Automatic annotation (TrEMBL):
This is 6-phosphogluconolactonase. The keyword Phosphoprotein does not apply. It holds the Pfam family Lactonase. Signal peptide: none annotated. It comes from the Bacteria. Belongs to the cycloisomerase 2 family.
Length: 365
């Protein structure tokens, strides 16, 4: 009997020890990839560790040596990374690249494909994770690529040329939404709409809404339910808010991104919704600020509540961490990344710190 009770006691101790050693630990540090222009001191794509509790960026390393990877996107399984690259050799075409992500954070090149235009500046992935879109600023074209089984890219399966005899296109960004592809064309002052039919994307609308003047749509974001589209205008330093009703689009709001006392030239750049979609953020190059807007979920209208310095020069791109707690800004000309804390109650930003890195222009969590 004594041996039986001893055995039971040992089993209980083992069980407790086993449970205590299987406690799930919270992952504090996550990777951040930084795309750059390599015409100065940068060599390609850099890798950082980002602390989700403190917002600190550490362990900067060169993840891949590549030419001006100025925009990036993950594959859906996050095993691969795709970039828009500007060639440093004027005799070679610009291109898009596919990389395999290694366990240590470095990147291994799988293949490259011709961008089918000049100055590629944005890449996006469809919801199924099977197609990459690329926009070419100086070429005025949009190219689509199939993702192969090994994560590499096929040759372009479709190329859309937005140039006309009277207008020069500057295709600047694109986004997939379900079976649609939207493209912001800064040169032709329009948001294009393509729809998928029998495996091909076809142009449905060259301008989903009429925009007075020439504000220059650059980047845009779409609400999760697809009802609202927010476009940041590079020339107009403004945000156009658009509401969708089935196949109809209507401009419902038009707001300045600049401070009330702003002077001098400015070129607005990037735009994103907060994780809870209660707030909207946009960057200003020249004024060098982040504009913060409060958003009404039902009506889709926005109201500016803050302009805060980016603590740097020429904020081209920014990102929000996966928890929605921090906002990070890539300041190209001052060679630094600024980290802000997001107030979860009112959406306003507080500057925390920054880290030096060469020519940052795209940030990817």
């Amino acid at each position: 009997m004594k041996n039986i009770w001893l055995s039971i006691f040992v089993l209980i101790l083992y069980s407790c020890k086993t449970k205590s050693t299987h406690v799930t630990l919270k992952k504090t540090n996550i990777p951040l990839y930084v795309g750059t222009f390599t015409d100065e001191d940068s060599n390609g794509i850099y890798h950082f560790l980002f602390n989700l509790e403190t917002g600190e960026l550490t362990n900067q390393t060169l993840a891949a040596e590549t030419s001006s990877p100025n925009f990036m996107v993950y594959s859906k399984n996050r095993k691969y990374l795709y970039t828009a690259n500007r060639s440093t050799n004027p005799n070679l075409p610009d291109y898009v690249s596919a990389f395999k992500i290694n366990k240590n954070g470095t990147l291994t090149l799988i293949n490259t494909q011709n961008s089918e235009g000049k100055s590629p500046c944005h890449v996006a992935i469809n919801e199924e994770g099977t197609i990459i879109s690329n926009t070419n600023y100086h070429g005025g074209t949009v190219s689509l690529y199939q993702i192969n089984k090994d994560g590499g890219l096929s040759k372009a399966i479709q190329v859309f040329n937005h140039n006309t005899e009277n207008q020069t296109s500057h295709a600047h960004s694109s986004k997939f939404y379900k079976n649609e592809l939207f493209v912001a064309d800064l040169g032709r002052n329009a948001i294009y709409q393509y729809t998928l039919n029998e495996g091909k994307y076809n142009l449905k609308s060259e301008a989903i809404t009429n925009t007075p003047g020439n504000p220059g749509p650059r980047h845009f974001t779409i609400s999760n339910n697809g009802t609202f589209i927010y476009v940041i205008n590079e020339y107009g330093n403004s945000i156009t808010s658009i509401k969708r009703d089935n196949s109809n689009f209507k401009t419902i709001d038009f707001d300045s991104t600049l401070s009330n006392n702003s002077t001098g030239k400015n070129f607005s750049a990037d735009i994103q919704l907060s994780k809870n979609e209660q707030f909207l953020y946009g960057t200003n190059r020249g004024e060098n600020t982040v504009a913060v807007f409060k958003r009404e979920a039902e009506t889709g209208t926005i109201e500016k509540i803050q302009n805060i310095s980016v603590e740097g020069n020429w904020p081209r791109n920014f990102t929000i961490d996966p928890t929605g707690t921090f906002l990070l800004v890539a300041n190209r000309r001052s060679n630094n990344i600024s980290v802000f804390k997001i107030n979860q109650n009112n959406g306003k930003l507080t500057f925390l710190h920054d880290v030096k890195t060469p020519s940052p222009v795209c940030l990817l969590f």
